[in-house]
Specification:
Number of helices of chain A: 21
Distance between the termini of chain B: 84 Å
Strand order of the largest sheet of chain B: 1-4-5-9-8-7-6
Number of domains of chain A: 6
Helix content of chain B: 40-55%
Strand content of chain A: 25-35%
Shape of chain B: rod-shaped
Strand order of the largest sheet of chain A: 28-32-33-37-36-35-34
Structural class of chain B: alpha+beta
CATH class of the largest domain in chain B: Alpha Beta
Radius of gyration of chain A: 41 Å
CATH topology of the largest domain in chain A: Phenylalanyl-tRNA Synthetase, Chain B, domain 3
Oligomer: heterodimer
CATH architecture of the largest domain in chain A: 3-Layer(bba) Sandwich
Radius of gyration of chain B: 42 Å
Structural class of chain A: alpha+beta
Largest interface: A-B, 92 and 83 residues
Chain lengths: 795, 341
């Protein structure tokens, strides 16, 4: 909300600076988004009187003028304007001046003739003809009669003012106006609030001779007030109105529209003016008929629904209530008589209508925040006061008023002890009452009880908590002094993290130790990612939760895999020269459920991605992580749409068929799509398996007896996996085989085409005795016999 | 006679030992004098040619010579070993300032994780329990139960991502409060860190960001307690001298509601570009839980009071690390991530 100081001063006599006022407002719960000094955009530009106009000696395209800036200063200005006459009063930008366009003007020589500055057009001063009569972009602005030379244009244009940009919280619709802020300032600074000036005359002609009013929707329109003004002269508003509207960023249009906007800003009461001719005898507040259409003032046609409130005549909607007037019913150049509307429309109704139609206005914004209960009549009377003051119309006698449900001031029982218990400090009851009185709250005493009457404009105040806030914001938050010792132990509460949270932190720190960086990517993604990853049409990954109002298609579905975010991050890094990285992310993936009343599925996934590994080194990252959780995993060759067909695996929970994730190398064509010319390894798993693992450690005694090692190499068909070999070795290795692993796989000259050699090591050990050679040889014979069953031959 | 021979051998041996300069030579000397066919051994073998009466005397001479030689050889060996060790050590001396050019180093947590951990750890020290909740939430938990009226602007499409009419991406971790209060009796002291979503995207807003919600429900808990807790937090998170300022504000679920400013940790309150010359940085919103919220969750508001606060993790990170554009926190460039080891 923009609040010009001068406008504010009309209602409360402030003498402090805008900065000081800002601090007061901040301490009262308002945010100050900025202080704008209107005179900062135009500097060193003055009115001047033209004394003499001569041809430029060196060109007939230019003129040399002598101008009077004030009594002492005569300046010489070179201009190309042909529209100037002696005695015109025009703006002149002197040396080192600044124009509204940001241009800096210096004194200079133009074709060998000295020029002390430049005459300004309307556009140079940020003016159009709506802002100042005759202002335009291509000719020098001439000031209206009565403007003296030597006056700073900021003064002439009413720009010697500061405007506060005040943020108003959603509960304080009552403060969303100049008068509302004035009321707050008055209470804070203990300066009297001036009453609104109401002064207008009425003719004998009665409004009811011309129109009738019917409110069919009292719930959506709690009050509708209409007044008739006849013989209206539509013209430009007086300077003060134009200046004030400009200061708050509203474009002046004509005197009547400007008055409705003026009241909107001054009192927060949106108003509208209808052309009496068009109203044609009846005003009906009703809901729209289905698919009823209206052309609004923005020139667009809107199709309405039955929950949209309209202001209609006997046949057609004339305005979308609280949102925008209809183009065909509002005032135009041939308007002579107008109906002024000042109404209260329900917040949610206006919000819904505005949202459905995608149409917002100053008016709808006010109604959505809620307006004062009593401002309809005040608003219309202020408008009539301005009309009378400007002598632009005759106010007809009488008012059409839907007779609002009478409103009573809410009362809250005053319980000072409870208030102190909310705040945690002791404030004398008397002090509290003084503060409340300052905000316009008064007390009523009755049988030793005190009741606080809440002013009607404060419908946000409903209970003692609200009163506590009013009191503390005046009393001062700095009075809430920290307790000497933070007493959190009145009740023992056990703090800490859940085992899941702790486990996730453990996973992260293990990965960090392993050289991985934690990334963070958006939970929503593009539905196109599935094409990008070649995900089959019937894959469950494509069952997504869609966002109804996304920030664009790229963020329109909740992700079902972290793969895309990982590849994008690897790609970003790769493109920027970080070509060897290990990244990870733990974040949720989401899936819909059929029942609307249930929560969708959301669960954590862990993804690790690398451009700095080969298959087996990368595998170690995952296996070591699982090892630290005592969670055994195995790998099973798999077909995964985005992975290299020969280098893809499911990660399996050891000893089961439970798939906990995927592992492998990104296929070449997908790596190409992400512009990465390197092998990319990824694994995405469900970390719940790790988290759920019971990590109960029981000590096992270590053996005192020597271990015996044996190495064997067997030749098998190329497609035989090492796991098959090791499984056989383990199964037939007897009780003393404590470890076995593959240490070499060889294909080449020494091995027949289509075969490979797998070399493995075995460690035998007993915890009770030294093993002898014969029993180990017997065991290894047995192992080799079993290996022979799958065609493995000792090399 | 024999004595002179022994002395001669001994003398020759000692001379050779003295002249020896490496272990091979010493070995050769050992073999030459003390080996199976060594000269001293030979004298000892010849002892049987002597008379029985002479034998002990000769034996003693030989033994003495042998011991002496052995001792001196051992000494010489030691001194050679020592020289070799010194030489080796010298040769093995490294340029300790040299480092491996490349190779994988330790990784790093995301700065937002670091901040989240810092903040949660501080509150855990104050006895808070860390709670999680769903990110896809019913409008009831995100709005209605939190006393947010049907016509409140925060429910607009422009402020909330909707999945369906009553399902949405939570806009605040306050939703977790409701779940906890409905399932747990007071006293309650929880914090709820998590991702939240709002349709904003610019230098100071991200459509996905993280909040940490705090809630205390107890028989006596006051606005002043809230300030004390947050002062404690400010002190531990920023510095001993960080001050806390309350400003009135409005949130439907708290009353009184406050915006909480911390004295600027960069300039100490003197005014700088981080605090826009105000000396204060807005960090979080807080307040006394609205009695309607307690009642909605089945907690008797005449018996219990609540205080609540919500901290923006990104904002805290930006302040603490001097980051001006929130989008950098989602950039994932390891040159950024590396800085937060």
């Amino acid at each position: 909300m923009l609040v010009p100081m001068n406008w504010l001063k009309e209602f409360v006599n402030i003498t402090i600076s805008p900065e000081a006022l800002s601090e007061v407002l901040v301490s009262r719960g308002f945010e100050i988004e900025g202080i704008h000094y209107l005179n900062e955009s135009i500097v060193n530009v003055f009115s001047c009187k033209i004394l003499e106009i001569k041809e430029h000696p060196n060109t007939n395209a230019l003129h040399v003028c002598k101008v009077l800036v004030n009594d002492n200063k005569i300046k010489q200005i070179v201009t190309n304007s042909n529209t100037l006459n002696v005695d015109d009063i025009v703006p002149v930008a002197l040396d080192s001046s600044k124009l509204a366009t940001g241009t800096v003007i210096k004194a200079s020589e133009i074709r060998s003739i000295k020029s002390d500055g430049m005459f300004c057009s309307g556009a140079d001063l940020g003016l159009t003809s709506d802002d100042y009569p005759g202002a335009s972009a291509d000719s020098i602005l001439k000031f209206e009669t009565g403007v003296d030379p030597g006056i700073n244009v900021n003064e002439i244009l009413g720009l010697n003012d500061a405007v506060l940009d005040i943020g108003i919280t959603a509960n304080r619709g009552d403060a969303n106006s100049i008068y509302g802020i004035a009321r707050e300032v008055s209470s804070a600074l203990k300066i009297d609030l001036k009453p609104l000036l109401i002064n207008y005359n009425e003719t004998v002609d009665h409004i009811s001779n011309h129109i009738t009013l019917k409110n069919e929707e009292p719930k959506l329109c709690s009050r509708y007030v209409a007044k008739l003004v006849k013989n209206v002269r539509i013209e430009r508003s007086p300077r003060l109105v134009i200046e004030r509207l400009r200061a708050v960023g509203i474009k002046p249009i004509n005197n009547i529209v400007d008055i409705t906007n003026y009241i909107l800003i001054e009192l927060g009461q949106p108003m509208h003016a209808f052309d009496l001719k068009r109203v044609n005898g009846n005003i009906v507040v009703r809901c729209a008929e289905d698919q009823e259409r209206i052309k609004a003032l923005d020139g667009k046609e809107y199709q309405l629904k039955t929950n949209h409130l309209v202001i209609a005549n006997a046949h057609d909607p004339m305005a979308i209530a609280g949102v925008m007037g209809g183009a065909d019913y509002s005032i135009s150049n041939d308007t002579t008589d107008i109906i002024l509307e000042s109404a209260a429309f329900a917040k949610d109704s206006v919000r819904q209508t505005s949202q459905d139609l995608g149409l917002r206005s100053e008016s709808s914004a006010r109604f959505e925040k809620g307006i004062d209960y009593y401002s309809q009549m005040a608003g219309i009377e202020r408008a009539l006061t301005l009309i009378t003051g400007q002598k632009i119309g005759d106010v007809a006698f009488g008012v059409l008023d839907t007779q609002p449900i009478p409103l009573y001031e809410r009362e809250i029982e005053f319980l000072p002890k409870t208030i102190c218990n909310i705040l945690g400090i002791t404030i004398p009851a008397k002090k509290m009452l003084t503060i409340l009185n300052g905000f316009g709250f008064v007390q009523r005493e009755c049988d030793n009880q005190i009741f606080i009457k809440v002013p009607l404009y404060r419908d946000d105040v409903t209970n003692l908590h609200d009163l506590a806030e009013e009191i503390i914001r005046a009393y001062g938050y700095d009075k809430l002094v920290k307790s000497k010792k933070l007493d959190l132990n009145r009740f023992a509460v056990l703090g800490g993290k859940s085992s899941e949270q702790t486990s996730i932190e453990k996973i992260k720190s293990i990965l960090v130790s392993n050289g991985c960086y934690e990334i963070l990517t958006y939970s929503f993604t593009s539905p196109k990612t599935f094409e990008l990853l070649n995900i089959p049409q019937d894959d469950s990954l494509r069952r997504v939760i869609k966002i109804k109002n996304p920030l664009g298609e790229d963020y329109s579905v909740m992700r079902t895999t972290l793969m895309h975010g990982m590849l994008k991050s690897l790609s970003t890094n790769y493109q920027r020269g970080n070509k060897a990285v290990r990244l990870f992310e733990i974040a949720k993936v989401y899936a819909p459920v059929d029942c609307e009343q249930s929560y969708p599925i959301e669960k954590n996934h862990l993804i690790i991605g690398s451009t700095d590994d080969d298959f087996y080194t990368f595998k170690k990252v995952l296996t070591e992580l699982c090892e630290l959780f005592k969670f055994g995993i195995a790998f099973r060759k798999a077909n995964i749409s985005y992975l290299h067909p020969g280098r893809a695996a499911y990660v399996i929970k050891e000893g089961t068929d439970d798939i906990i994730g995927v592992f492998g190398e990104i296929s070449e064509d997908i790596a190409d799509k992400f512009n990465i010319a390197k092998r990319i390894y990824v694994t995405e798993i469900d970390p719940a398996f790790l988290i759920d693992t019971k990590n109960d450690i029981t000590y096992k005694p270590i053996s005192k007896y020597p271990a015996v090692e044996r190495d064997f190499a067997v030749v098998v068909k190329k497609e035989v996996e090492s796991k098959t070999i090791l499984d056989i070795v383990n199964a037939s290795g007897g009780e003393y085989l404590i470890n076995t692993y593959v240490f070499d796989v060889y294909t080449g000259n020494q091995v027949e085409e289509g075969y490979k050699s797998i070399a493995f090591n075995m460690v035998f050990q007993s915890t009770t005795r030294t093993l002898n050679d014969t029993e180990i040889t017997d065991t290894t014979k047995n192992i080799l016999k079993n290996l022979a069953n799958i065609g493995a031959v000792l090399r | 006679m024999l004595k002179a021979k022994i002395d001669g051998i001994q003398e020759a041996c000692l001379l050779e030992i003295n002249n020896a300069s490496d272990l091979q030579q010493i070995n050769a000397i050992k073999i030459k004098y003390l080996g199976r066919n060594g000269e001293i051994t030979a004298v000892l073998k010849s002892i049987k040619e002597a008379s029985v009466a002479e034998r002990p005397q000769i034996g003693k001479w030989v033994n003495d010579a042998q011991k002496l030689v052995e001792g001196i050889i051992a000494d010489k060996e030691n001194s050679i070993q020592e020289i070799l060790k010194q030489k080796r050590t010298e040769e093995e001396t490294l340029d300790v300032t040299l480092s491996l050019p490349q190779g994988r180093s330790i990784g790093a947590l995301n700065p937002l994780t670091l901040i989240k951990n810092d903040i949660t750890d501080i509150f855990i020290r104050m006895g808070f329990e860390v709670k999680d909740g769903p990110e896809i939430e019913f409008e009831y938990y995100n709005f209605t139960a939190l006393n947010i009226p049907k016509d409140h602007p925060s429910r607009n499409n422009s402020d909330t991502f909707y999945i369906s009419d009553n399902l949405l991406l939570r806009t605040q971790t306050s939703a977790v409060q409701v779940h906890v209060m409905k399932s747990q009796r007071p006293p309650i002291r929880i914090i709820c860190p998590g991702k939240v979503y709002r349709p904003d995207d610019d230098a100071t807003h991200s459509p996905m960001f993280q909040q940490i919600e705090g809630l205390v429900v107890d028989t006596t808990v006051t606005l002043r307690d809230l300030k004390s807790i947050l002062e404690e937090f400010a002190r531990l998170f920023f510095s001993e001298t960080t001050k806390v300022r309350f400003r009135p504000s409005y949130f439907p679920f708290t009353e009184p509601s406050v915006e909480v400013d911390l004295s600027c940790n960069k300039c100490g309150g003197a005014g700088c570009n981080l605090c826009k010359s105000t000396g204060w940085i807005e960090l979080l919103g807080a307040g006394v839980v609205h009695p309607n919220v307690l009642e909605e969750c089945g907690i008797d508001s005449s018996k219990y009071k609540g205080i609540a606060f919500g901290i923006g993790v990104e904002r805290a990170a930006m302040i603490k690390y001097g980051i001006h554009d929130m989008r950098l926190l989602f950039d994932n460039d390891i040159r950024i991530l590396k800085q937060f080891k």
